[in-house]
Amino acid sequence: MSGKPRWEVEGRDWPNRAASAFVQAGGLRWHVQRAGHGPALLLLHGTGAATHSWRGLLPLLARRFHVVAPDLPGHGFTSTPEGDGLSLPGMARAVAALLDALGVAPGVAVGHSAGAAVMARLALDRRIGAAPLVSLNGALLPLHGLAGMVFSPAAKLLALTDVFPRLFAWRATLDPRMVEQLLRDTGSRLDAEGIELYRRLARCSGHVAGALGMMARWDLEPLARALPALGSRLVVVSATGDRTVPPSLGDQVVARVPGARRHLLPGLGHLAHEEDPGSVEALIEGLCGPADSNTRADVVVDRGVN
Fold first, then answer.
1. Which residue, of 67, 108, 143, 267, is most buried by count of CB atoms within 10 Å of its CB?
2. In angstroms, rounded to a whole number, what is the distance separating the alpha carbons of residues 256 and 292?
């Protein structure tokens, strides 16, 4: 059990490691993966994940796009911000600062779960232009019922100290089945590599604290009110077996966003892009096609340990 994941330990054989770099932007040290040539495509993972979530999808997309995939603030190998940096507006500002540092203007943006909310906030704040937006099992609306009443207040309480993150990491270290069961509860069935990568992060209390801090500061009500402004560039993709963000929530998003398109992925769960990256890659390419441009600039890069 450790604090933040260490590149030389937890990242020793990280998926797509050759594409990894460490970049200073917006007061944070980011872990970001960049691969391929062509129009820029931004990938934003969900709560509790990191770039490993794209391990199968990134190489496929890199055949046609210049893919940019960061670990979100507080997650994986990216440092944890202070203040409201783990809130939705704070994360969107941080990702915008990273894109500015990289000199990248995405022609397509893809967000999974909470990453879709960050993507939408970026678009509404006009930080990613008129890029097509693909929401993969996107958490774009507040949870209702008991889950909505308990989720954020409980996270806020647990985030007050480092006790719960340390306890969670300790439990994940002692019981290898715990993380596997949490993943199965999403409706997805991952291979052994995928389970081990999530388990590796769950053993690091700093990563757990980043995910918990994000949940504690998450407020989707302002985003929900602003969603109609996204219009026809939004593509809502839901997996029929998703137990975390059920397809019915995707239906609600489409109902409130004029011109939004709807697509279902049969037989997959919340981590559909990890279960079947080929189908998701084909869907993204078919929906979005290549964008018009890709811009780059010099960045401050520390390649880490290869």
1. 67
2. 28
